[in-house]
């Protein structure tokens, strides 16, 4: 989801707080861990403005932008099969927990 939000903003940067607003339900910690991982993988570039408090900006790198097509395929698959997944979850959850 974070990559999708950054892709929508490309080629511009997005500040951390704005990313958090655009990704519903994500905690500050989870977003921070995700962005750190994406930066380490070379998919996201991070820029810090030396202000108080620091302003941190993110954008997709060329490598990150190259994911757009692959993620669109996964998104289409998920949308097509969402009802099947929901049904499987309901069947699973209805079974007694035998541990």
UniProtKB/TrEMBL annotation:
Residues 1-86 form the HTH hxlR-type domain. Keywords: DNA-binding, Transcription, Transcription regulation. The keyword Glycoprotein does not apply. The keyword ATP-binding does not apply. InterPro entries: HTH_HxlR, WH-like_DNA-bd_sf, WH_DNA-bd_sf. One of its GO terms (molecular function) is DNA binding. Gene3D superfamilies: Winged helix-like DNA-binding domain superfamily/Winged helix DNA-binding domain. PROSITE patterns: HTH_HXLR. PANTHER family: HTH-TYPE TRANSCRIPTIONAL REGULATOR YODB (PTHR33204:SF37), TRANSCRIPTIONAL REGULATOR, MARR FAMILY (PTHR33204). This is DNA-binding HxlR family transcriptional regulator. The lineage of its organism: Bacteria, Bacillati, Actinomycetota, Actinomycetes, Streptosporangiales.
